[in-house]
């Protein structure tokens, strides 16, 4: 696991003591250094600079690294082989992520691994057979055959996706941005009818045939949100189909959020858990760490799901976010010199398995709120490299599996067509079938059930919440957008407060003149 220590970052984020602060400076605490917290710090620092408002931002993160659910692991502890463990890709319509990549001079990772390995790019498997297999080299004739299978459903789905995403993108700019209420803005931009129904209902009501919906769209909702179409709302379903320009940052997407914090010049405290937030009579907040350190702030931004924050807010805020179900997802990374076994997918021995395998349900299987008979959501080749720990260095594939339960030796033996021991399935064996393995349980995203109301952004005066957006859309981009939105709302309140103060002074001066 990548570890970033506080001491190594402090020179970069310009840690400031209270004696450095300008009179009447605003002090802001952000709890969480993931996408939402990092974006809030970055954009608030920009807004404060534009308005010449002295602002001191402190970010608290209980993990040893920046990025939250966007983090990497190094295969065989090789620093040159960083594999995404959490948020893996972002796309063209993710404006904050794309702009940050450009502004911070970060570079996309190579995306042509399947071609290098001479494998098909993508296959959709229903537990019995591959429904679709695609290659980067597919001709227009291959694409035409896909249309024959599904008629115009792919074209209409793409148009529907563009319409829905277009409505969402209006949330980035005025007059819609910034929004004080997520529930209100969803209705205002015309997305209430999309979040209020299931993906299955939304596609059917828009004339998308069952075959394309259940075979292709459902494969996308499963890999992205571990959900079948009957158990995910229509908006998140459409988001899954916005795949144009998919990319990731070379070395890890977490670097975007690392740069945001550096450029915000925030004081960063890693390995630091917040135990209590206490509102004071003057409207400020005392923020207490689990080790007993206490500091006072004008504003506090909760940039982590409150139900997992394990902290006390005293007194209770005006609004308390609902505790909602999150998906418990097992992510497994492992390395092996062996390709996936065609027999595991009912293929003949000479037919290669695609580099990325997505799953859906077979035709006769009733949709369930779970993985169903395929038993996993996806398996893909995420990288390749030379195993430096084996007695004879050998080139190996690095795989990633999303599943509802912990991967064991039986499953791995079946997938590889080679015996995998219990030890290898747990810890790897440098010279074994599985040379390296990493298991991770994520509470990765809310169960995206249909809903028409969302959590409050402002829980109380001076107390803000970014994670309510996750049951609307849960991505790196939308968490970053929520952080930016909160930053703008805080900035606007500061400006309004300045105006009211100035107006009050004018009134008092006028009274003096009249006397």
TrEMBL record:
Chain coiled-coil ranges: none
InterPro entries to which the protein is assigned, alphabetical: FAD/NAD-bd_sf, Prenylcys_lyase, Prenylcysteine_Oxase1
One protein family per Pfam: Prenylcys_lyase
Keyword set includes Signal: yes
BP GO terms, sorted: prenylated protein catabolic process; prenylcysteine catabolic process
Prenylcysteine lyase domain segment(s): 135-496
Domain of life where this protein originates: Eukaryota
Segment forming the signal sequence: 1-15
Known cofactor(s): FAD
SUPFAM superfamilies listed in its UniProt record: FAD/NAD(P)-binding domain (SSF51905)
Gene Ontology molecular function terms on file: prenylcysteine oxidase activity
Keyword vocabulary terms for this entry: FAD, Flavoprotein, Glycoprotein, Oxidoreductase, Signal
Gene3D superfamilies according to UniProt: 3.90.660.10, FAD/NAD(P)-binding domain (3.50.50.60), Guanine Nucleotide Dissociation Inhibitor, domain 1 (1.10.405.10)
Membrane-traversing stretches: none
Family assignment from sequence similarity: Belongs to the prenylcysteine oxidase family.
Entry protein name: Prenylcysteine oxidase
Organism whose genome encodes this protein: Clathrospora elynae
């Amino acid at each position: 696991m990548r570890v970033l220590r506080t001491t190594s970052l402090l020179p970069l984020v310009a840690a400031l003591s209270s004696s450095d602060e300008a009179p009447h400076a605003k002090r802001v605490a952000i709890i969480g250094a993931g996408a939402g917290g990092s974006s809030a710090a970055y954009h608030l620092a920009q807004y404060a600079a534009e308005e010449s408002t002295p602002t001191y931002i402190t970010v608290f993160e209980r993990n040893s690294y920046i990025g939250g659910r966007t983090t990497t692991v190094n295969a065989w502890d090789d620093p040159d082989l960083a594999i995404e463990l959490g948020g893996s890709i972002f796309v063209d319509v993710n404006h904050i992520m794309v702009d940050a990549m450009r502004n911070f001079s970060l570079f996309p990772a190579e995306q042509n691994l399947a071609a290098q390995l001479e494998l098909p790019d993508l296959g959709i498997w229903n537990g019995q057979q591959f429904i679709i297999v695609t290659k980067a080299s597919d001709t227009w004739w291959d694409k035409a055959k896909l249309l024959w299978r599904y008629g115009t459903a792919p074209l209409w789905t793409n148009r529907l996706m563009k319409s829905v995403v277009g409505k969402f993108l209006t949330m980035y700019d005025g007059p819609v941005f910034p929004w004080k209420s997520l529930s209100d803005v969803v209705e205002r931009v015309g997305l209430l009818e999309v979040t209020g129904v299931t993906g299955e209902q939304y596609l059917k009501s828009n004339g998308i045939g069952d075959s394309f919906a259940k075979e292709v769209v459902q494969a996308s909702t499963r890999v992205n949100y571990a959900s079948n179409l009957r158990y995910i709302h229509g908006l998140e379903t459409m988001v899954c189909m916005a795949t144009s320009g998919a990319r990731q940052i070379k070395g890890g997407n977490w670097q975007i959020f690392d740069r945001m914090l550096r450029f915000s010049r925030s004081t960063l405290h890693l390995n630091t858990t917040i135990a209590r937030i206490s509102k004071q009579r003057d409207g400020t907040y005392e923020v207490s760490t689990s080790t007993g350190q206490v500091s006072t702030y004008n504003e506090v931004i909760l940039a982590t799901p409150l139900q997992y924050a394990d902290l006390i807010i005293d007194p209770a805020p005006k609004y308390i976010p609902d505790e909602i179900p999150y998906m418990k997802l097992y992510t497994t990374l492992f390395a092996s010199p062996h390709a996936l076994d065609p027999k595991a997918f009912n293929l003949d021995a000479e037919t290669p398995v695609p580099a990325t395998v997505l799953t859906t349900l077979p035709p006769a299987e009733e949709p369930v709120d779970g993985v169903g008979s395929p038993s996993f959501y996806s398996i893909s080749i995420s990288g390749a490299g030379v195993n430096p720990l084996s007695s004879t260095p050998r080139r190996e594939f690095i795989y990633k599996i999303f599943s509802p339960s912990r991967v064991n030796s039986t499953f791995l033996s079946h997938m590889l067509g080679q015996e995998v021991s219990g030890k290898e399935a747990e810890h790897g064996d440098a010279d074994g079938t599985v040379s390296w393995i990493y298991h991770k349980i994520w509470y990765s995203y809310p169960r995206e059930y249909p809903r028409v109301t969302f959590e409050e952004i402002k829980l109380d005066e001076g107390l803000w919440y970014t994670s309510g957006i996750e049951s609307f859309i849960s991505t790196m981009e939308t968490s970053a957008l929520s952080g930016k939105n909160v930053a703008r709302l805080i900035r606007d309140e500061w400006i309004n407060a300045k105006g009211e103060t100035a107006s009050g002074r004018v009134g008092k001066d006028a009274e003096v003149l009249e006397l």
